[in-house]
Amino acid sequence: MATSTATMSRLLTPVQTLATSGARAVETFTIDGTLHLAIPQLALDIPGQPAAMNGGDSDTDALIYRWEAGGFVEAATLPLSGGEDVEFFTLGTRHFLATCGVRSGRGPYSLDTEAVLYEHDGTQWQPFQRFAVFAAKQWRFFTLGERHFLALAQGVTVEGVVPRHPRESYLFEWDGERFVPFQRFDGRWGYNWAFARFGAQHLLAYADHVDGSLIYRWMGERFEPLQRFDQTGGRAFCFFEDAGTLWMVYANLTGTTRLYRFDGTQFEPVQTLGEAGGRELKLIDGAHGRYLVRVCFITGTPHDPHTSLTSQIYRWNGNGFDLADTFPTTGGTDAATFVADGQRYLLVSNSLSAEVRFRADTVLYRFDG
Asked: What start and end residues bound the annotated signal peptide (predicted)?
């Protein structure tokens, strides 16, 4: 089933640009009633160095912003080499930021780095726990009953590189004092996680670039494989429930993005939502319906990338998605949505310019859907 196209009206209006460099994620969170934004940055451009998406100076900072008077103002930074992800979560009244990066250095690079979990002390962020990681891509926090888990997607396959740190993706569990290893996942190039509850079932989706992506089901003691997607290029999953049915969207960088319906045993394909380039997905429950944002990264290859792409917003029609709007991205990596002062907004991070430079704006849009 192909994507249907409805008459489109503009849903997005740009209202602010943030001067970022190699932005890989956008994470919004609220502490003591104040909205904040964290943006990890992969790299800075090195003057005189040829354009290359795997080059640059990766000894960078994550940027922390605060919402003021209808926009974001920079409030702080956190050291984060080769920044890939920042995940905010709470445990009781405690606030945490889990950070990770893919590499350090200016070339040659080290893929063996340290991921830092920070806790907010009421005034600033303090290091709480450190993890030895290898080419780390994403943290994802979720709860299962009274248990708290932190999932790490990591790994890469590079000829001649021998990891010193653990290379497998891991699930860590909170033991009351810290996060301890709970379960190992075998993928060699982990990218992303998504967790879903559906009735009595608990599902965990893991996206991997080279070894195929999987959906796991909680079996009481650990997560066991439920369904495999063999194609390479796995980037992101998202789940949602509608009218008693569980749906899932799977984005693949080198293949198609597809919508699936869960039949109680397996996810069956229903609709194609765009060809190669999909990297991240974000659901929005807006004033006029449910929307899906598909953020596109690159097409081509890392050695010859095409970064200027068109990303999409789809509107749910009860059985599938209709194309509702499009917007430009250059090496798009992530999206986040929030409501402030009665208005819904959408944030989109761009990691590369049209010229394959790292200096590319993160864009804040007003969302009128």
From this structure: none
Amino acid letter at 332? G
Q: SS3 letters for 14-31?
A: EEEEECCECECCCEEEEE
Predicted pLDDT of residue 9: 66
From the DSSP assignment, how many helices (H) and strands (E) are in the chain? 0, 31
The domain spans of the chain are: 4-367
Topology, domain 4-367: Methylamine Dehydrogenase; Chain H (2.130.10)
Query: How many CA atoms within 13 Å lie on the side-chain side of 197?
Result: 6
Using CA atoms, how far apart are residues 164 and 115, in angstroms rounded to an integer?
Answer: 14
Residues with Cβ within 8 Å of 152's Cβ and at least 6 positions away in sequence, in order, are 100, 115, 131, 133, 136, 138, 139, 169, 170, 171, 172, 190
Length of the chain equals 369
Q: Are strands 4-5 and 321-330 parallel, antiparallel or unpaired?
A: parallel
Mean pLDDT in each 10-residue stretch from start to end of the chain (369 residues)?
56 98 98 98 97 97 97 98 98 98 97 98 97 98 97 95 96 98 96 97 98 97 97 97 98 97 97 98 96 98 96 98 98 98 97 98 98
pLDDT at 140: 98
